[in-house]
Amino acid sequence: MLTYNCNRTLPSPIIQLMSNKLTHVDEQGRVQMVDVGDKAITQRRAVARGRVIMRPETLALIVAGDMKKGDVLTTAQLAGIMAAKQTSNLIPLCHPLMLNKVHVSCVANSAENSIDITATAKVSGKTGVEMEALTAVSVAALTIYDMAKAVDQAMQITDIRLVEKTGGKFDFHARDK
Q1: Known catalytic residue: 38?
Q2: In 3-state terms, the chain is what percent helix, strand and coil (to 5)?
Q3: Which domain range does residue 158 map to?
Q4: Domain check: are 99 and 19 in the same one?
Q5: What pTM does this model have?
Q6: Does residue 25 sit in the same domain as residue 72?
């Protein structure tokens, strides 16, 4: 386990490695927020995906709208959108963004006994929206779990990942979307 003392100076080779590779680490090895002031404003987009695996009976209750807590899929969709808007309050050093759009879909997948979640976040800005898309998927999945846990504590939240990022210095497209 790696522990870090804020007042401790790291050995020079480690500082060199960290400062060359990690943008959230300064020359002394301390965390810092990245300065995006000189970056150009560009159109940025990120897509993330995840899944909640459950018993077939649980999925059937959700699809039928028979869960005691209400409409699971709509509530999870709304929770994901709301979470994306709060990402900078949840993730240290994450810049607050004026999001142009967040779209969250929660689709029942009876072949896999799961709900598949996709979130797309868009911004006209100086930094990417990957964390917003990932946060949206994560909170949507947690909401599904919360609303269905009374009937299925064995649900699994899985496969949360970034599948696409456009804008900024480089684009990213996962092979296994």
Answers
A1: no
A2: 30, 30, 40
A3: 42-173
A4: no
A5: 0.84
A6: no
